[in-house]
Amino acid sequence: MSALTAHPAVVPGPSRARARRHLELVRPGFVGQPAAPARMAQAPASAAPAAAPGAAAPPMRLTVRGRRVLATLGLVAATAMSVAVGGWAGSAVAEPAPAAAETVTVAPGQTLWAVADANAGPGTDVRELVEQIVAINGLESTELHVGQQLQVPRG
Questions:
Q1: Contact present, 106 and 148 (Cβ < 8 Å)
Q2: Which of 42, 84, 98, 112 could covalently link to 142 via disulfide, CB atoms 3.0 to 4.6 Å apart?
Q3: 154, 119 in Cβ contact below 8 A?
Q4: Any residues with CB less than 8 A from the CB of 133 and at least 6 apart, and which?
Q5: Euclidean distance between CA atoms 38 and 36, whole angstroms
Q6: Cβ proximity of 29 and 57 under 8 Å
Q7: Tell me: the pLDDT tens digits for 58-83?
Q8: Please, are residues 34 and 40 in contact by the beta-carbon 8 Å criterion?
Q9: Contact 98, 132 (CB under 8 A)
Q10: What gap in Å lies between CA 29 and CA 16, rounded to an integer?
Q11: Tens of pLDDT along 87-131?
């Protein structure tokens, strides 16, 4: 008694009917082999055709989805590096040197606003000048004392 086993034809190239695994490395000209039935005896390993000695294996390639994943990872890495370098470069930039300052002695009844307004140049915002005076002189409040010496930037 004899038996005949038929295998479905394998069409070269990608097949839409067969579900493909994502990120599968395939060699050029790869053709899937049908699964061997459990009853069929496996051929010994020595029966497989041996590659010629010294012959290089064809290069591996990624599927389309795998290339997209790698491109996305590359963009994420580049973005992270640019943010890190930008933060480092931003912290390396020093504050601009303050403009030349003059020493002013506080008169009776004079307020910080009046000192800033008297020394503000044309088009200078007095509020910013008050903040600069407080920062330069290390004042904890805007309260001034008669005879107090203040460094006031020239505006």
A1: yes
A2: 112
A3: yes
A4: 112, 115, 116, 139, 150, 151, 152, 153
A5: 6
A6: no
A7: 777 889 999 999 999 999 999 999 99
A8: no
A9: yes
A10: 17
A11: 888 776 655 555 678 888 999 999 989 998 888 888 888 899 899
